[in-house]
Every structure is written in structure tokens, then in C-alpha cells.
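Per your request, structure below.
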């Protein structure tokens, strides 16, 4: 299940910017808006999962229907050539796909005796499939084509049909009433009265703005400057993520929350600095370095932050607190970042005849400075009071709410 789930996502998400910018000739703002569809879905999907899927229908059937519907939308998406038709279809598709991330996790939890020990070994298959599909797409040199979207559509059909064979998983909250404040975490707003929690909350949302530059434009950047098999090389980031998750307990004991979070934010600035000055020839090591930093960028900030929230929140609002962080980061922060990254890319784009020239050094300078700014604010205002008592385990792409369900976070 996890292998198929992340084949679907990994097939189209990384290379979409290259296809839109190179083949469809979309402007920077349009590419940014296309990626913002995922953020919009992140803001809406908690309502679907919390108010519908968890209360009325068996999880395996919801998964099957969403993936089959998603396959149809992906096929339609591959036929779209103008932004006016492309944008509403990708929004519709992400609204179908985003809830399946939480649902595959929750289905796993309900059929495990010890999710804390068993889930990481299952979920890592999603990271492995993400790596495999990235290597295949890069090897075939189809990043600038609609083919990855069609591959995702085919995988979605397989996943949809397979979902109906999964163990029966009745809605876990059947008959219970849900409130909007519970679903998006408004019950946890009182935690913002504590300064350090508020600083982490704001910093997490703000760091998602420079983060969006990477997800939206890194593949286009690597292909544009002539890096071969860019999609395959970008999977080094997922390998790095697994490695640094294994090392996190070691760093936790020696650094604590604040320094871990600071290292994570500093890594974002370092990544973009490497992209600014790297090239596919004598300085290609800088490009590899920027990709491999993904493990530190993602794990040291996001996973550490999720563990901090889980520890600080009282038992009765733990889920609400994670929901609030999810809404703010993957929703609000990523939406602003996707839009802003598109604006910046368009600002530093020049059309030369039928070709397009990007001033990548100027483009990457913006998220680098934003990352430094968030780091400075966080360093000044965040105060650590408690020792760390967590052993994290992570995987690419799951929502914060999903991660909170096991103490080994995603």
C-alpha cells in the first residue's frame, strides 16, 4: 500500500515544474500557483478526513474511490495545455490525493499491535518507491513530458483497485460529532500564549515559504542548467532523509531542541547558497550538496518541531496542536511560498526568441535570505526549557498530523 501510494505522488510532483516551464511555457507565477494546489488541499483535507472519512465510510473504500477518481483527473491533467484548464484540474486532483496520505497512515495504525515499532518499517516503503520512480523518470529523460503524469495515473488505478483488497477498516469515529475547531486545531490556540511555542509556530510557517522554492523549481533548475538525470539525482535527498533520521537520536542528546531547529533552518540557507554557485561541471559537488542537505533541512526542523509540539501540548489537545501546525505549515506557509516563488522566478526570467533564460543566482538568493531571517528571529526569541525524550523516525511527504500518531515521527 505504501509503495503504491508514494509511486503515485513521486511520479508527478518533483518534475511538474520542469514540464510546465519547459514544455507548456507557463510563467513563473503560474508554476507557483500550480504547486499551491497542494497547499490548498492541505488546508481542506483535514475537514474531509476528520468530518467525513473518519465518521461515515470504511477507510479502504475511501482510499479506493479517491485514487480511482484521481486517476481520471490525472489523465485529464495530462491533456491540458493552457493554465486556465490546468489549474482547476490540479486543484481537484490534489483534493483527492491529499487525504489519502492521512488515510494510509491511519489504516496502518489500526491494524498494528505496536505502531511505534511497526509503522516505520512499513512507511519506509513509501520513501523507497519515491526514490525508485524518481530514478526511472530521470533515466528515461521524460521530465519535460506529460508522461510522468500518465505514469501517476496508471499507478493510481492500480492503487485504487488494490485498496479494495486491504483489511476492512471501519470509520474509527463513527457516530461522533466533529467541530471545525477540533479538525483544524483551533482548540490548541491557547498554547500560543507560551512565547517559545508561538515562536516555533510562526517560524515553522515562515520557513515553509523558502521551502516552497525547492519543491516548485529545483527540478526545473537542475534540468535548465544541464544536469543529466535530474529527477534521479534528486532522490539522493530522500536517501539523506532516511540517514539523518537514524542519526537524530544521537544529535538530540547532544544538541537539544533549539540547536537542532537552528541547524535545520541554517541548512535551508546553505542549500540555496550551494544552488546559487553550483554548476554541472567543476562545481557539481555544490549541487549534490544542496540536494543531500534535504535530510538535515527536513528532519532537523520539521520532525524536531513535531516532537516538540507533541511534548509541549497537553494530552487533551495533542491532536489539535498537530492539526494547527499542519494547517499553518503545509497549508498557509506552503501556499504563500508557492505563490511567492512563482513571482520571484518570473521576475528573474527573460524570454529570448523561443527560449527562456532564468537568472538562478538571483532566484535562489531570495529563499536563502528568507531562511536566514527566520533563523535570526528564532534564535533570538526561542527559549528551550525541557530536555528531549524522543526517538524520531521519518519519511517523506506525510502530514504533521499523521506523524503525531506515533512517537517516532515521520
Amino acid at each position: 500500500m505504501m509503495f503504491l501510494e508514494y509511486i503515485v505522488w513521486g511520479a508527478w510532483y518533483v518534475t511538474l515544474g520542469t514540464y510546465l516551464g519547459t514544455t507548456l511555457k507557463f510563467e513563473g507565477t503560474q508554476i507557483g500557483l500550480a504547486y499551491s494546489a497542494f497547499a490548498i488541499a492541505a488546508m481542506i483535507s483535514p475537514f474531509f478526513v476528520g468530518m467525513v472519512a473518519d465518521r461515515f465510510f470504511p477507510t479502504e473504500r475511501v482510499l479506493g474511490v479517491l485514487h480511482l477518481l484521481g486517476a481520471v483527473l490525472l489523465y485529464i491533467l495530462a491533456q491540458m495545455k493552457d493554465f486556465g484548464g490546468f489549474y482547476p484540474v490540479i486543484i481537484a486532483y490534489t483534493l483527492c490525493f491529499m487525504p489519502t496520505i492521512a488515510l494510509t497512515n491511519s489504516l496502518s495504525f489500526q491494524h498494528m499491535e505496536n505502531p511505534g515499532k511497526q509503522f516505520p518499517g512499513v512507511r519506509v516503503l513509501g520513501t523507497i518507491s519515491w526514490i525508485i520512480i524518481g530514478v526511472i523518470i530521470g533515466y528515461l529523460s521524460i521530465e519535460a513530458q506529460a508522461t510522468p503524469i500518465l505514469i501517476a495515473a496508471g499507478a493510481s488505478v492500480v492503487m485504487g483497485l488494490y485498496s479494495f483488497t486491504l483489511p476492512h477498516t471501519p470509520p474509527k469515529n463513527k457516530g461522533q460529532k466533529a467541530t471545525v475547531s477540533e479538525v483544524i486545531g483551533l482548540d490548541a490556540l491557547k498554547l500560543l500564549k507560551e512565547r517559545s511555542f508561538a515562536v516555533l509556530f510562526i517560524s515553522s510557517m515562515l520557513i515553509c515559504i523558502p521551502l516552497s522554492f525547492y519543491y516548485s523549481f529545483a527540478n526545473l533548475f537542475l534540468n535548465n542548467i544541464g544536469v543529466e538525470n535530474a529527477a534521479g539525482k534528486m532522490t539522493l535527498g530522500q536517501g539523506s532523509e532516511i540517514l539523518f533520521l537514524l542519526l537524530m537520536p544521537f544529535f538530540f542528546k547532544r544538541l537539544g531542541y533549539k540547536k537542532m531547529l537552528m541547524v535545520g533552518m541554517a541548512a535551508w540557507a546553505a542549500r540555496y547558497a550551494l544552488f546559487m554557485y553550483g554548476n554541472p561541471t567543476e562545481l557539481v559537488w555544490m549541487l549534490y550538496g544542496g540536494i543531500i542537505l534535504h535530510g538535515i533541512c527536513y528532519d532537523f526542523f520539521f520532525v524536531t518541531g513535531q516532537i516538540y509540539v507533541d511534548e509541549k501540548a497537553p494530552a487533551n489537545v495533542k491532536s489539535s496542536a498537530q492539526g494547527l501546525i499542519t494547517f499553518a505549515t503545509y497549508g498557509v506557509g506552503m501556499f504563500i511560498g508557492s505563490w511567492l516563488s512563482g513571482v520571484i522566478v518570473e521576475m528573474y526570467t527573460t524570454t529570448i526568441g523561443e527560449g527562456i533564460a532564468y537568472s538562478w543566482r538571483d532566484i535562489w538568493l531570495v529563499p536563502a535570505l528568507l531562511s536566514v531571517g527566520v533563523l535570526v528571529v528564532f534564535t533570538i526569541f526561542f527559549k528551550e526549557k525541557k530536555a528531549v525524550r524522543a526517538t524520531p523516525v521519518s519519511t517523506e511527504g506525510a502530514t504533521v498530523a499523521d506523524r503525531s500518531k506515533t512517537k517516532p515521527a515521520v
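The beta strands are 349-352, 355-358.

Regards,
D.
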